[in-house]
Write a structure and sequence with these properties.
Length: 254
């Protein structure tokens, strides 16, 4: 079972967003658990404040170290009391390493993960130095809080937990799983808006279908993510040689 613990000022935002669809079924099957923990519950301030002015000046307020630290320590204590290992703490921040499928696979091997969601102008650096193990970003832009990025990562990680997806092949054939974007897919009807399903998909010839799918993945990746395409080609020099010999944009016969 994979246990997600989200430290947040807006727990309802997290639970409402994650308690649907595939993740809801995974929760019902006890494959994953979602625990949104209110940081404000750990403040010592009689007015329930968790923020204060930034030393050195500047706009906005900063989340204080004490409530964040006490919240994290309480979660870790409960994890240890259940006989599990101390959890990694993921701080959702634009300064972190960019989240990708490889990172999702790495995180999915953990039994517990704690996500720390910041707000205002951020969090006191001293507590980050004490509790955070992983600094992670979902892209080069700024959001109002860490909840949405945390939810994105939890969704991606959960899909890799055994049993969450009905079809075991689904997570293996999706975009990024092999370094390429996913190929186009089609369903009934066979003709729609005068557009027909590619004949090869109706042929029943599985080997040819697989070749076509790889070709299309390469085409999609070269078009939309040339950086990924170049990296994939560097790792598959035989494919590159055949590509040059055949003088085709993408090889069919691999």
């Amino acid at each position: 079972m994979m246990n997600f613990h989200i430290m947040t000022l807006f727990p309802e935002m997290v639970t409402d967003g994650l308690n649907t669809s595939i993740l809801k079924r995974a929760i019902d099957k006890n494959l994953i658990s979602i625990d949104a923990v209110q940081i404000r519950d750990y403040t010592l301030d009689k007015h329930n404040k968790v923020d204060d002015y930034t030393y050195g000046g500047g706009a906005g307020m900063l989340m204080q170290a004490q409530p964040v630290y006490d919240c994290a320590m309480d979660i870790q204590k409960k994890i240890l009391e259940k006989g599990r290992n101390k959890s990694r703490v993921v701080f959702v921040t634009p300064r972190g390493f960019t989240f990708n499928q490889k990172m999702a696979q790495d995180f999915s091997k953990e039994e517990d993960l704690i996500f720390l969601c910041g707000h205002y102008e951020g969090i006191d650096e001293r507590v980050l130095e004490e509790i955070v193990t992983d600094y992670v970003s979902i892209g080069d832009y700024v959001l109002t809080g860490g909840e949405l990025p945390a939810m994105v990562m939890i969704d991606a990680i959960s899909r890799l937990v055994p049993g969450v997806l009905n079809n075991s092949e689904s997570s293996e054939t999706e975009s990024f799983s092999d370094g390429l974007l996913e190929y186009p897919q089609y369903t009934r009807p066979e003709t729609w808006h005068d557009k027909t399903v590619p004949a090869i998909l109706l042929s029943g010839h599985h080997a040819n279908v697989e070749k076509w799918r790889l070709e299309q993945s390469l085409i999609q990746t070269q078009k939309f993510r040339p950086d990924m395409y170049e990296k994939w080609m560097e790792l598959h020099p035989v494919v590159e040689k055949k590509k040059r010999r055949r003088k085709k944009k993408i090889p069919l016969d691999l």
